[in-house]
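Weekly modeling sync, notes
Attendees: S.R. (lead), two postdocs, one rotation student

Agenda item 3: backlog of single-chain predictions. S.R. asked that every request posted to the team notebook include the full sequence so nobody has to chase files. The rotation student volunteered to paste the first one in as an example of the format we agreed on. Action items at the bottom.

Example entry:
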Amino acid sequence: MALTALQTGGFVLGILGVAALIAATAMNNWSTEDRQGDVVTSVYTYKGLWRNCEVATSGFTECRPFYGLLGYSGSFQAVRALMIVGIVMGVISVLIGLFSLKCIKMGSMEDTARAKITLTSGIMLILAGICGIAGASLYANQIVASFMQSMYYPNNGGMGGMGGMGGMGGGGNLIPRYTFGPALFVAWIGGGLVIIGGILDCVAFKGLLPEKESYRNVQYKAPPRSEATIVHEDNSRRDQKYV
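Predicted structure, as returned to the notebook:
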């Protein structure tokens, strides 16, 4: 019962975590404009991995996709790559974990094979979660760097550190500061769920292995006797008979 709960828990957490990573990657608000202490402006901006959006006071939102691949910084491309790799590995590991559940019968699959599949799924889930958390953390680090730059050096381009993360470059004090968006927290939570699910699968791996017998019946075989030993035993019996 405990083994089934571990497997099911890891599988469910893996699905929820991968779904959160997919949702975070598709969201447009990875970074949002910091409006603390500012008067209400006519334009409010936020940015994601694939689009740049502006919201007017009228409530109308306009999003512009990021065209091309070579016009952005290496850090921004690394964030995209990490999130995509995490999603792909997570989806594959969830599919693999589905076939390793004890409640699903796959022909005459032995417990040893089921245990190996569970371990593979768990390791891939952990790697997928690490990719998701690493991608969100890398993006967050760029936000912090650009936020501090725009705070202490307002005449050096404001969001210069994030210029490659959305193409909203510019100069002077007109460049707004950006802070963490909801997508970052969704990615962190999703990556954590995926890692926990992978750990549960790795723990379930030990329980799926067949128990080894502590004692084995060993048949004793007497060593072969030589011809001299046989003759000696016959002579001894003959002497005992006459005595």
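Discussion: group reviewed the output briefly. The first strand starts at residue 31 and ends at 33.
Action items: rotation student to repeat for the remaining queue; S.R. to check formatting next week.
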